[in-house]
Design a protein that fits this description.
21% strand; single chain; 25% helix; 13 strands; 9 helices; alpha/beta
């Protein structure tokens, strides 16, 4: 991956002041992430929909932005007070669904396993893609739908359009997108409630995971909605509240979050599984440690029990797995450090972008962790 001098970008603060700050800041962040940014439009001609031409964030061998496939069910459901009788997505399908949220329509894709035909409430996993990705790309790279089909789990993939962020990133570093009932957290919670309204979902088994910017937003959702999400998975992300603007986002990516005194306060901590490559030059591995620390600190040190084990994937990478338990034996955090891996979904498939097939299977481990942690009553 192309190396970028983030320190130099940090020194050039003046370039982010003035008109068009958000779009050009996002553009700069993408350069820092080692991605090929989407060409920046002028404010007068800024597009309001996803690009129709490919972008190249990593290498030509990796999957790129793909529009909905020909057999996708486009806008199968439009939800809102004007259409209360919307249909549920069909069983066994991966359907693109439109959600009316406030004054706009946003989309997500929903995988519905065959097990849903029985009508028994099933777990639901929300998967938040990274920058330059989309739901199809992320589903292909993580292989989560295959695992979910085997275990009877619904999977919801929110879609960040170019209108929401020039490079399809979740805006994890903006204060208005870090608070319950505000911005993107409110939108994502609305998508979950929409899926729960139209499908049999077990409310005690709703989970969220994400990669990079999606991982950072997953951490925010776990912090702000512990009554909705029973557990969280953060892959190559940043701790909730680890940045409050563009420059602190650069700093967190480079060295880890420095100052969280003004970060939104969590209602309570939820069990969290963390994956991070120790060769990640895009989001420093220290961020994975900080996510673990933010969760573990809710358990008094005297009542905390931690263990660590090491392993190696056959013909693949070695890893260290650290588990932190409370006095009653409940796992609060499970942290996987993948040795030699960069900024990529561990154990992912080459059909998607930002994947490392040589690492332990993050999708399988996250799903295992999730299903072992239903939300506690009360």
């Amino acid at each position: 991956m192309k190396k970028i001098d983030i320190a130099q970008l940090l020194r050039n603060r003046a370039q982010f002041n003035g008109v068009g700050q958000l779009m050009h800041a996002t553009h700069a962040i993408q350069r820092a992430l080692g991605m090929e940014p989407v060409a920046m439009p002028t404010p007068a001609t800024a597009p309001t929909s996803a690009p129709t031409t490919p972008v190249s964030p990593v290498s030509p061998a990796r999957a790129r932005w793909r529009g909905p496939a020909a057999n996708d069910v486009e806008d199968a459901v439009v939800v809102g007070r004007t259409q209360p009788a919307a249909q549920a997505a069909p069983v066994g399908a991966f359907t693109r669904i439109a959600l009316r949220h406030g004054h706009e329509v946003r989309h997500y894709k929903l995988f519905v396993p065959a097990a849903a035909s029985a009508g028994t409430p099933l777990p639901l996993v929300v998967m938040l893609h990274g920058c330059t990705q989309n739901p199809d790309d992320f589903a292909a790279g993580t292989g989560m739908n295959t695992l979910a089909g085997q275990q009877g789990v619904l999977v919801l993939y929110p879609e960040q359009p170019q209108a929401g962020n020039a490079n399809h990133c979740w805006n994890w570093f903006r204060p208005e997108d870090q608070r319950r009932g505000s911005g993107e957290p409110a939108l994502l919670a609305a998508m979950v409630h929409d899926a729960m309204q139209h499908h049999a979902v077990d409310p005690a088994r709703v989970y969220v995971a994400g990669l990079s910017a999606g991982g950072a937003m997953a951490a925010v959702l776990g912090q702000q909605y512990p009554d909705l999400f029973a557990a969280v998975g953060v892959h190559s992300g940043v701790v909730a509240g680890g940045a409050h603007d563009v420059m602190s986002a650069f700093s967190a990516m480079k060295n880890g979050a420095k100052d969280q005194r003004n970060a939104p306060r969590p209602v309570s901590a939820v069990p969290t599984i963390v994956f991070h490559g120790d060769a990640d030059s895009t989001v420093h591995p220290r961020n994975g440690d900080q996510i673990t620390e933010a969760t573990v600190r809710h358990t008094p040190a005297s009542a905390r029990h931690s263990t660590a084990s090491k392993g190696t994937i056959a013909a693949g990478r070695s890893y260290t797995r650290a588990t932190h338990r409370s006095a009653d034996g409940t796992v609060s955090t499970e942290q996987w450090t993948v040795h030699g891996s960069g900024h990529a979904w561990s154990g992912g498939q080459a059909a998607g972008s930002y994947t490392d097939p040589q690492g332990p299977d993050a999708s399988a481990e996250m799903l295992r962790f999730f299903l072992a942690h239903p939300r506690k009553p009360g």
